[in-house]
Every structure is written in structure tokens, then in C-alpha cells.
Amino acid sequence: MKNPAPVMLLALCLFVAGCAQADGLLKSAERGNAGDQWILGVMYANGRDLARDDAQAVFWFRKAARQGNVEALYDLGWMYVLGRGVARNNAQAVSWFRKADDQGADLVDMKVYDLGVTRDDAQKTVAWYRKAAEQGNVEAQYLLGRIYERRFPVPRDYAQALFWYRKAAEQGLADAQGRLGLMYEGGCGVGQDYTQAVSWYRKASEQGLVAAQDYLGLMYEYGRGVTRDDAQAASWYRKAARQGNRDAQYRLGEMWSEGRVARDCTQAAAWFRKYQCNECLHAFHDQTGSPPLQSRVPQEK
């Protein structure tokens, strides 16, 4: 049985800090904070701490989406699928899902790409990507890798995905470097190699790719491909957490609450509070039946 002390400390921290305040979020959102605009949209969408208002949810999702917030891009797509706050429009849904994918979202439910897009259209798109990729277009190389990794509209082929990710990664595309790191960490299409995974995560992280910063923090926390180092883990988690990565927010709060960087109830509460705000996304998805973004949960050695 795990030591209950960290759990009790977490509860105390959250009690002391209090729950997220809608007024504060509204002021921050009005100042243009994309993360808080998205959170406000979620609160309106599922009626948490605010009266449910789908039109307001769409309004704030759109504000955040226009700033490139990946969760807002994804959720705005689902509002169009469900016809909540807007007229049901599959073409608009696909457009927002694709924008989310361009930002690095892992869309769990690939049927969204069937909304208004025929398989024949998709096959033609793949042929165009391949032609452009073979001519050295880095974006096409990355997208072709994504297509082979996700098995739509072609059979999944990790070796091909790895091949095209490497092409794009070697040209310096951060998204491709991050995906290549995942392929090496998971042993997909290549032998599992944590050292190579760390190398590619670092390249992507140094370019500011938020997901890669979180992944690099994990590698340091669990000693995969590098010497275990809580200070380095916290440093990379902090970079990702400050940009709204919910997994990094939780893990950073956990490190503060457990005293792995220094025991600090205030710091722990601050990060757990941000994570708890993001958790209302799950209630929204449970209510609508839409699939959430994938969350990477490490297995501790």
C-alpha cells in the first residue's frame, strides 16, 4: 500500500489554495490568455461553476483556437460534430480537427476523418503528400509519417512512419523530432532505444515543442536513456506546464508535494489547481461522448 501522506498533503494543499475562480479566469481570458480561454469554454460547455451555455463555450473555444490552443481546436471541432452552440457541420469539424492535428494532437477516434471526407479523397491526398515528400517538402514528410503511423487511409506501417519522420526530423521539424522520439521510446518500427528517444526529445524540446518537453521530463524522472535526475525532470516539466500541458502540471505538483524538488505546499497547490481546471475537460468529454486527447501515462520501474 502506498504511503497516504502525499495524498493527505495534496488534499490539504488543494483545500488551502481553494478551487479555481471563474472571475479570475474570465479576466485572464479577456486579456487574451489562450489556456484560460479554453478552460472557460470547457466550464461553459459542461456547466461547471458556470451555467451551461454552449454558445459561450463555442465563443471561448474559438478565441483560444485562433491562438493555436490545441485543446480548443479539438473541442471546437467536436462542438461542430455535436451541433452544440453552432449548426452541425462536419466539414467545419474536419477543418478544426486537422488544425489540431497540425498542432500535435493525437486524435484517438479516427472516424472524425470520415466526416465529409471520402476514402477516395483521402487516398488522393496521400498520393499528393508522397509526391511532395519525395521532393523534400518537410511538412509533407511529417504528414506522411503520421498517416502511416495512424493507419488511415493506408494500412499502418511503422517502418514507413519512421522513415518519413526521420526525413522531416533531420530537416529540423520539431513535430517530427518529437514523434521520432516516441517511436524509439516505444520500439515502433525500430528497436527500443531510450538514448535515441532522449536525443530526439531534446532536439524537439529545445525548439519549444511542449509535448516533447513533458516527455523529456519523464525520461529524467524515470531514468530512461539518462541518469535519473529530479531537478532536470522538474525543469522540463515546468517548461511544459507553463504552456498548459496538463500532464506536466500534475507531475510538477506531485514533485513539489512529495518534496522531490523541495516540499512546498503553495507550489504544489498552484500546479494541482491548474491541473484540476484542466480536468474539467474529462467531464465535458464524458458528457458529450467525444474521445479525449490521448494522455501518456508512464509505467514506473
Q: Can you count the beta strands? A: 0
CATH topology of the domain at 20-117: Serine Threonine Protein Phosphatase 5, Tetratricopeptide repeat
Q: Low-confidence stretches at least 5 residues in length (pLDDT < 50)?
A: 1-20, 107-117, 287-301
Listing every helix as H and every strand as E from the N terminus to the C terminus, the arrangement reads HHHHHHHHHHHHHHH
- How far apart the termini lie comes to 16 Å
Key structural traits:
mainly alpha, 301 residues, Serine Threonine Protein Phosphatase 5, Tetratricopeptide repeat, disordered N terminus
Structure explained in plain terms:
Helix 8 packs antiparallel against helix 9 (158-170) and helix 14 runs antiparallel to helix 15 (265-288). The chain has a domain at 20-117: Tetratricopeptide repeat domain (Serine Threonine Protein Phosphatase 5, Tetratricopeptide repeat), CATH 1.25.40.10. The protein is flat and about 50 Å long. The protein contains 15 helices and no strands. It is mainly α.
What is the structure about, briefly put?
The chain is mainly alpha-helical and 301 residues long. It has 15 helices and no strands.
List the topology elements.
Elements: H1 5-17, H2 22-30, H3 34-46, H4 54-65, H5 70-82, H6 90-102, H7 119-134, H8 138-150, H9 158-170, H10 174-186, H11 194-206, H12 210-222, H13 230-241, H14 246-257, H15 265-288
